[in-house]
Each structure stands twice: as C-alpha cells, then as structure tokens.
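User: Hi! I'm working on a homework problem where we have to compare a predicted structure to a textbook description. Could you give me the structure for the chain below?
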Amino acid sequence: EELYATIEPLARFVPKLPFVLAHTSVEHSSDAVHKPLRERWLEGDPVVRRGYEEITRLAQEGKKALLAQDWPRLGWLMNENHAIQRDLGGSGEANERMIRIALEHGALGAKLAGAGGGGTIIALHLQPEEMIAALRAAGCSAIFYPCITDGVRLEGEGDI
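Assistant: Happy to help. Predicted structure tokens:
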C-alpha cells in the first residue's frame, strides 16, 4: 500500500510559531475539492501527479525551514505550495481574497489550510497581532494564533 502522508510533531523544536489561522466563514464540502483531484490522481493525470510530487518536496523543505526558523524561506515555500494547490483547483475565491490581504499586510507566506475550497488560510507573519488585525478588518469570522504548550502529562505514579 502506498504511503500518502506522515505526521511528525515539530512544535517542541520551535519556541514560537509566527502563524495565524483565519476562517473565512465559507462553508463547503471537502468532497467537492478532493474527489475530482483524487480521480485525476488515480487516472494518472501527469499535472496532478507532478503537482503533488512538488508539494511533497516543498513540505520536506518546509520542515527544514521551520526547524531552522528560516521564516523568509518558509514563507516562500508556503506561497509555492499554494500556487500549486490553486492551479490544481484546490482554492476558492474566499481563500484567494484572504491570502491576498495577508500578503498585502506583510505576511511572508500564506496558503489555504484544511480541505481547500474556501474555509481556512494560514499566514506566516513575524508580528501576528498585526496580521490578526488586518484579517479581522477584512471580515474573517474566526482567527486563531497557535501557541506551543506541553499538553497533558502524567505527574507521579499510580493508576489513572
């Protein structure tokens, strides 16, 4: 069976993540985005295959940039990733509007997040508070600023 994706926690290696997630309030079915792309992938569409091979390479480079905290490089990689997703039909009008606003307000990179088609974007900005204000002024309904925490841990001995 072909492995399509892996998940690797990296937050503990980076003390502060300068990302902002913004939700556009556009509701959509992820199936409307993913089903046609999956069908094209399974049919061997060379454009889709090349696009996702490049996205894989960009993700690998993005991991290196994130761990090095090379924010300009990571921003560039995010923009490249989004361009491929957009060209494959994975982005929606609301995504594009919010990404444009983020870049116009100093984001080093911005791309769709989640299923695509219009719901959520992620922007890389060294002053996240400024990005939050710009996106809020543009009408984003929900804005999240991720922070790193240790999460839940067990202290002491015994049964839970």
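For your comparison, note the following. The chain has a mean pLDDT of 86. The chain is about 45% helix and 10% strand. Good luck with the assignment!
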